[in-house]
Hints:
The protein has 230 residues and is of the alpha+beta class. It has helices at 3-9, 12-41, 68-87, 89-109, 116-128, 166-177, and strands at 137-146, 153-164, 184-191, 195-198, 203-206, 209-220.
Amino acid sequence: MSLLANFNALPRQKQLAVVYGLPAAIAALLLYWAWHDLGKLGKINPEVPEAEGNKLPSFLQRDVPTSVWSEITDLHGQIKSQEEIIARGPDVAKKLAALESENKALQERLPQESEKAEMRDMIERLAREIPKDIGTVELKSVTIVDNGDRGDTRTITFQTDLAGDQDGIIKYIDSLEKNTRFMAVNTLSIHAGQVTLDQTTRKLAYGLHNVHMDIVTYVYNPSKKTAPAP
């Protein structure tokens, strides 16, 4: 017996139920599938560039955390955060360059361990460069006193003996402490020069003062790290 014959054999009420119920069931099934797929699509975020041109009515949009649009929105947020970090790049690079410049200036001011001899030469040169019309400085000796290895930064003392007049000594100390490399006069002792009588002019002649000073600087070894405490 065919399907149509079976349908015709049914009572009138059952025939009406099939006629009206079957399309309703199919429509309900289609609506379910559509609603399920709308849930997969999710609620469209108008702030995301991908949403431009999308005309799906808002009442058909479902806000589901696991939907495609939720993932797109999350990815868009991550991209936006990365773009903000990238946008800060030039400012960060500028600050880093300033810090590197400052660090370089500090390193140039603080001598390295390998430059101890150069520092002694500088101390001797500054004494020779005192202008004669300002004062007199006669350098006698410069001895390096190193307390030994105490890590990557330590104190070095240059024990310096010289003879000079008052103006020359003041100018020499000023030249040392205002030099581009860090140096400071830690201790200073002055002994008055010999006083003699000039028989020709019958005036007192004052000899140069004898001076001993400890010139201190800090040296560092950039390749050496301080040993960790036991």
